[in-house]
Write a structure and sequence with these properties.
The complex is a heterodimer of chains A (192) and B (445). Chain A is an alpha+beta fold and 192 residues long. Chain A has 7 helices and 7 strands, in the order ββαβββαααββααα. Chain A has a single domain, classed as Beta-Lactamase, CATH 3.30.450. In chain A, the strands form 2 sheets. A 5-stranded antiparallel sheet of chain A has the order 2-1-5-4-3, with helices on both faces. Chain A has a two-stranded antiparallel sheet with strand order 6-7. Chain B has 445 residues and is mostly helical. Chain B contains 23 helices and 2 strands. The longest helix of chain B is centred in the N-terminal third of the chain and has 20 residues. The chains are: A alpha+beta (192), B mainly alpha (445). At the A-B interface, strand 2, strand 3, helix 2, helix 3 and helix 4 of A face helix 5, helix 7, helix 9, helix 11 and helix 13 of B. Chain B: One of its GO terms (biological process) is intracellular protein transport. Chain B: Its main location: membrane. Chain B: It is found in: Endomembrane system.
Chain lengths: 192, 445
């Protein structure tokens, strides 16, 4: 299980924090601080796994992180998660952000904290990995963006709102075609 | 005056939708928010930051209380509050606004409301009671987006006492025509299972149906529930093995849609989940394990190690081989694969090599023999994570013949270690060894 997803910059300033398990506010802050201290003192040429955080869950728990330019992306997970799987999940997360914001930068994470969390919401749910396909995640968050344009458009520029609604139908249809396009697994149903 | 000016400026880009200021709009954040961030970036002391944030918070509090706040303004205020909250400042005055936002308004407003509620507080907060009817209603909505956000909110904001109220609606969504809704409903049930395991027992038939869903991603979600179920009672679920083998075969034969491929490896995350479940089902169960041997060999041989995610599958397969009833041929094959991890220049792989060797040594200590020199190298490795994993391996390798040497090594590292947590851990290990092998004489300084 993923207990927390933390993003902070090289100075330890939190940029995104998401906890999937209950911790008091104080504890959350301590976890962010401890995680930053543990991760930031490691060189860039060591492995991306780290044990030893005492606060979040003791010996059963591990930090899996990636360092991109000015930002650390840290997933705090228990022993049931696959290390390499999570490492690639972080990559999926970052690539999705990059696609969504076109060259994502630190400020995007603050100004568009809502969108970042919607992406996270498609990536994991209740601390479990939900979706790993970037195209799928993007198409779900696109729905959100369309909705936003549509709602902003209705008050400001009706013509635009209408075109937004027209646009909305096209990918919707595409998705409908994609959904039943999975013949193989149906076969196993009988075998269970 | 400046306030009016600021408001005019912040609404300006919206008035020009798609027109003159698209870049400004794309960047996001109002002028005031940008300015606030700039000031926060420039503060010299914690005290300066505090007074700056307090000022911001009182401004936002005022703005929220104004009768005519537009929906997009309110949304931005909430996002500014999320930022202050992340910096550990008290924004409890806004909780009720977040709740109200989730309760009423357009889908978008509700979505912002649910998000901020989940970020500001959790299931133990008294306000959650105010949300239960809204979640209930949204779960039954005909709008897929609304159902999805209600399901997500359920995993974040529902306490154990509320499960009975929401369970029927969540269960009902398991037969929704959209795959994403079914999948999220299963994830919700998994969350309920984590909070109150007994909730799941009467639902076994519907969960089994989810496992057989025609969409693989719903099956994937259902596997999480079975992981937890089989932790307590592995023998009760061995009937799943033929089905799991069949799914693995189909994955290997690339019968799943290309959407599940990641760097040309077919459905790696799903494969890892299935292998993990197999490890639980086959542990101490020779007849169950026997059925798995051929497919595990196939996974090991047919998975492309070209990308890391392929190695994630191979690694998990090795763990499964070490966890189930032993099969000599497979274990020999596994030891060969371990070399690939241990000798890798990529330190992530080296780390996992040490970890998997630890699991294999638990089956039979002689698997470590051929890697002995690599293990000794790892013990002096500059990376602390690898050193610490190797000490773990060393602890597992201890036998009457070598226990004194191993304890000595552990004590050497104890003296060098700076981290208190790690020191304690080492002491526990040494203590454990001395107790287990107390008949042997020790000579530790």
């Amino acid at each position: 299980m993923i207990r927390a997803i933390l993003v902070f910059n090289n100075h330890g300033k939190p940029r995104i924090s998401k906890f999937y398990q209950y911790y008091t506010e104080d504890m959350q802050q301590q976890i962010i601080r401890e995680t930053f201290q543990l991760v930031s003192k490691r060189d860039d040429n060591v492995c991306n796994f780290l044990e030893g955080g005492t606060l979040i869950g003791g010996s059963d728990f591990k930090l899996i992180y990636r360092h991109y330019a000015t930002l650390y992306f840290v997933f705090c997970v228990d022993s049931s998660e696959s290390e390499l799987g999570i490492l690639d999940l972080i990559q999926v997360f970052v690539e999705t952000l990059d696609k969504c914001f076109e060259n994502v930068c630190e400020l995007d994470l603050i100004f568009h904290v809502d969108k970042v969390h919607y992406i996270l919401g498609e990536l994991c749910m209740g601390g479990m990995v939900l979706e790993t396909n970037m195209t799928e995640i993007l198409s779900r968050t696109e729905e959100q963006n369309r909705l936003e344009k549509q709602e902003a458009g209705i008050s400001a520029a009706p013509a635009r709102a209408i075109s937004a609604m027209k646009e909305m139908n096209i990918p919707q249809r595409m998705k409908d075609i994609k959904l039943p396009d999975l013949p193989s697994i149906g076969n196993i149903a009988g075998k269970f | 005056m400046s306030d009016i000016l600021e408001r005019t400026l912040s609404t300006l880009p919206r008035l020009l939708v798609g027109g003159l200021a698209p870049a400004e709009k794309e960047r996001g954040g109002s002028r005031a928010f940008r300015q606030f961030l700039r000031s926060i970036g420039n503060v010299k002391s914690k005290h300066d930051e505090e007074s700056l944030v307090k000022k911001e918070l009182s401004l936002l509090k005022q703005k929220l209380a104004m009768p005519k706040v537009s929906s997009s303004q309110r949304q931005e205020i909430l996002m500014r509050l999320v930022y202050c909250h992340m910096l550990a400042y008290d924004v409890s005055f806004a909780y009720i606004h977040a709740v109200k936002q989730a309760q009423q308004g357009t889908v978008l407003e509700k979505k912002v409301g649910y998000l901020t509620c989940a970020l500001f507080f959790d299931a133990s907060h008294e306000f959650v009671v105010l949300l239960i009817n809204t979640i209930q209603k949204d779960l039954q909505s005909s709008n897929v987006l609304e159902v999805c956000m209600a399901l997500t909110a359920t995993t974040q904001l529902v306490s154990t006492e509320m499960i009975p109220a929401l369970l029927p609606s969540v269960q009902d969504r398991l037969s929704h025509p959209k795959e994403i809704v079914r999948r999220k409903a299963v994830m919700c049930l998994h969350r309920f299972q984590q909070m109150a395991p007994e909730v799941i027992d009467p639902l076994l038939p519907v969960i089994h149906k989810a496992l057989c869903d025609k969409h693989p991603s719903v099956m994937w979600a259902a596997l999480y529930i079975y992981q937890d179920l089989s932790k307590g009672n592995p023998s009760g679920f061995t009937s799943l093995i033929p089905g799991l083998i069949s799914v693995l075969t189909q994955i290997l034969n690339r019968k799943l849609s290309a959407d599940y491929e990641f760097h040309t490896v077919p459905a790696p995350w799903l494969t890892v989940q299935i292998l993990k479940l197999m490890a639980k089902l086959g542990a101490n169960n020779p007849s169950a394990s026997e059925k798995m041997y051929p497919i595990l060999k196939e996974v090991l041989q047919r998975t492309e190690p070209s990308h890391k995610i392929g190695l994630a599958v191979i690694y998990e397969c090795l763990e499964t081989i070490a966890a189930i009833s032993p099969h000599n041929g497979l274990l020999e094959l596994a030891t060969k694969c371990v070399s690939r991890f241990l000798s890798a220049t990529n330190l992530n792989l080296k780390y996992l090599g040490v970890k998997i060797l630890t699991s294999l040594v638990a089956v039979n200590p002689h698997y470590a023999v051929e890697h002995q020199s690599t293990v000794l190298d790892c013990l002096e490795h500059p990376d602390a994570s690898i050193r610490s994993k190797t000490l773990e391996l060393l602890h597992r390798m201890a036998q009457p013949g070598n226990v004194a040497v191993i304890c000595q090594k552990l004590m050497d590292h104890f003296q060098q270690a700076g981290d208190v947590h790690f020191k304690t851990h080492l002491l526990h290990r040494v203590n454990d060894l001395t107790q287990r092998h107390e008949t042997h004489s020790f000579n530790i300084v």
